[in-house]
Amino acid sequence: MTLNGLSTMGGWRDRGRILLAVGLAVLLTGCVATVQRQATELRREPGKTPTIVVMPLDVELSQLTAGGVPEPQSEWTEAALKHMRDALEIEARSYKVKLADFHAERGSAEDRQTSLDLVKLHRAVGGAVLIHQYLQGFGLPSKDGKFDWSLGPSVATISRSHEADYALFLFVRDSYATAGRVAVMVVAALMGVGVQGGSQVGFASVVDLKTGDIVWFNRLVRPQGDLRTPEAAAETVKALISDSLK
Amino acid sequence: MNLDTKSACVTLLLAILLLSGCAPFALVNPERQTVGDVISVQPGMKWNKITQHNYQGNVEVWTLDGAVLNTLLFFTGVPDGEPLFTRRVMGSSQEEKPPVFKASMNPVEIQELLEATIARHFQTTLAEGRNLKPVPIADGKGFRFETRMVGRDEVERSGVFVGTIRNKKLYGAWFQGAKLHYFDRYLPEFEGIVSSARLVGAAAAK
Amino acid sequence: MSLTRRDFGCAVCGLATLAYAGRLPGQSETGAGFVAPGYRPAAGTDERGIWGLMDREESSLKTSRFVVRDAELNDYVHGIVCRLGKDYCPDIRGYIVRTPYFNASMSPNGMMQVWTGLLLRCVDEAQLAAILGHEMGHFLRQHSIQRYRDARDKASFATFLGMGLAVAGAGGVGALVDLALVATMFAYSRDQEREADQVGLELMTKAGYAPMAAPEVWEQLLAESKAGTATRSSGFLFATHPDPEERQSTLRQTAAKLDTGKAERAHDRYLQKLRLVRQRIVADELALRQYGRSELVFDRLLAQSPDDGLLWFAKGEVCRLRDGEDDVARARAAYDKAVAAGGAPPEIHRSIMMIEMKAGARDRAQSAFDTYVKLKPDASDAEILRTLLGQ
């Protein structure tokens, strides 16, 4: 099944998802700083509050049954999405930024397709960042340690349709159980559903909608963490986005 | 097939290593160099050569931002009767034979061959070549066409293939990148590499 | 009929037993109950979790590039579903996925997928109805949840079940799952397949379709699997459906009993509705470069539609691409029939040019080129073709 699950991927080209999960799940790291940034603070023009569009939160919660089966928990996931959104609002207020929700249906037909394509692209780029910036030995020598990842200038589509300066992407796979099985955890994370071993894996990225550059990126991998209650979700959100909204 | 968890673990980790394009990337400096002993090129910037990849055949693979985002595949002499490349896909029971290159092929057939190769190896029906044109390549006659494909990750990728048949072998290069940003940004660099290309060694022998 | 990755998710989906206890609005002839129309799983149940996951997968499916959005074709398929399933029409949402293999599936939340490789291989509407009816059989009898419940508590299975869930969300839309082993683990049981066959036949017959179409589909698939080397698709298909010959003969016996000889096939309407996608799905089949299998499929379709220019073109392409002994002559013969019948795309003349050049027939190649550029004045490859002629 393991083999099969992997072989369904179109291999090279489905590495987006694979890289994402490998990067998330394989705890080979150690010394790499989790927060990576191109810019240290958001651009703030005098008299204007930066607007950040919150991209569709890519979150799945699951519960491990006694037999070790991760059962997706729809109601937990739906509640978590709400708690996270609320927590983001609180963070936004404390950093004095404005949040806007992403509406896929905005703009012309071409704009809509571009926005969708950007979300798909971000997943691929996120996966590449997790592998090449966080995994020891997988760095790209041509980059020379520099963090330069981008979605490119087409982000102007989102900037226009939402009148926003930045976009925030969050990805979390969270499971609740005590049993830990590394191989299964990795594969499940590979597939993006439920992470065995009762842990939390995720990442957050902030994209500058003027340039498309990822100006802030953080990876989160930890055995604790909860998204099922408002308070716990707020803590997770803080851990994810840290001071990115500064 | 063995369902044992332990062997699944081992296979899985192996699979991760293989599929993730594997650890080593070797730095490629912006200086004249020979790829596969047959294609001499001069890149204008630093690249990363993927030293462990799952493409099989007469190819060398470079990338700038990671293989999901862009790749440059050099075809270093595909012989008559061989596929352009094949890929090791973990656990796949690929008993179907791949389509192969024939030295008698014309450029239209090569374009069709790359389309079929992409469709097969990236498991997509959305792969096409267009704008096939004759161009000079490496001091001789060659051809060029654009590619477009959507992978299973729903990311659309643009590409350009340039190639030539010499001494019954196919030499060429195929640059592919995500349509948004990663292809456009580096297309000029690829064009530069192509115009610098010369065939050397066994490829240049008469 | 076959299991897709979405069925894997379904196979591990939990669904409660019928929502409305004591009320069985639909029922099989065998007395077995159907899920109630408009059924929704109760909050807090495991199946509610699975439905949520399936709903989220469906929203990705909705934006996938691999889904065929042709409105007329989608309305047509939906119309067949409603004709078969009446009360269940609003519960089922069909998606046509551009994958060149034979497959169809249904998830417990009502999401149905049909792969274009299946549309290519069906000869008429009755055959398509047979498959949709079979899938609806699994859905109405809630086989996925039974399978999940059977499997859930087995310790050795648990580890892999998680991956099954994962597979449901992975690999992208319409990806073909490879390993027969996995397929076997998540396959419906033989009893369930028989039940789905039974229900499918009942639905078809009640809707006025010819029941003999059902065993025909299996016979066609069996013939195809024998035609070439083993394929990913057939290995997978027959792993999930063991003893295909036995099933096919059971289907034939049951269908023969139900057959009145008067029921509908709708061959012409089927081809008419498919006309906008046929060129694409033919091209997808050709790109697989499995010449023996493709030739068998096109020959079979040509037997039903001997004046179909697109099919003759397809047959010619198989020969041209295979490029074996005598293939030039075979291709030429097929292209001639295509041109005479009409309906082939302008690219046929480019193909004719190429085989005539192989045959050394310069004048014929030139004439084909002239026709090609006349029919397609903006052909971007005109220049290179001219170069080839000039050599």
Word description of this protein:
The complex is a heterotrimer of chains A (246), B (206) and C (391). With 246 residues, chain A is of the alpha/beta class. Chain A has helices at 2-7, 15-25, 74-95, 109-134, 156-162, 182-191, 230-241, and strands at 35-37, 51-54, 58-64, 70-72, 98-101, 166-176, 200-208, 214-222. Chain A has a single domain (12-33, 50-241), classed as Double Stranded RNA Binding Domain, CATH 3.30.160. In chain A, strands 1, 2, 3, 4, 5, 6, 7 and 8 form an eight-stranded mixed β-sheet that branches. Chain A is globular and about 40 Å long. Chain B has one domain (24-203): Mog1/PsbP, alpha/beta/alpha sandwich (Protein Transport Mog1p, Chain A, 3-Layer(aba) Sandwich). Chain B has helices at residues 5-19, 107-121, 187-196; strands at residues 25-28, 33-35, 39-41, 47-50, 55-56, 59-63, 70-79, 86-87, 127-137, 140-150, 156-166, 169-178, 198-199. In chain B, the strands form three sheets. Chain B has an eight-stranded antiparallel β-sheet with strand order 1-4-6-7-12-11-10-9, sandwiched between helices. Chain C has helices at residues 5-11, 46-62, 71-85, 116-121, 125-140, 143-152, 155-169, 180-186, 190-206, 213-227, 232-240, 244-258, 267-287, 291-304, 309-322, 327-341, 347-358, 362-375, 382-390, and strands at 67-68, 93-97, 104-106, 111-115. Chain C has a four-stranded mixed β-sheet with strand order 1-2-4-3, sandwiched between helices. In chain C, a hairpin with a 4-residue loop joins strand 3 and strand 4. In chain C, helix 1 crosses helix 7, helix 9 packs parallel to helix 12 and helix 17 packs antiparallel against helix 18 (362-375). The longest helix of chain C is centred in the last third of the chain and has 21 residues, at 267-287. Chain C is elongated, with a radius of gyration of 23 Å. The termini of chain C are far apart.
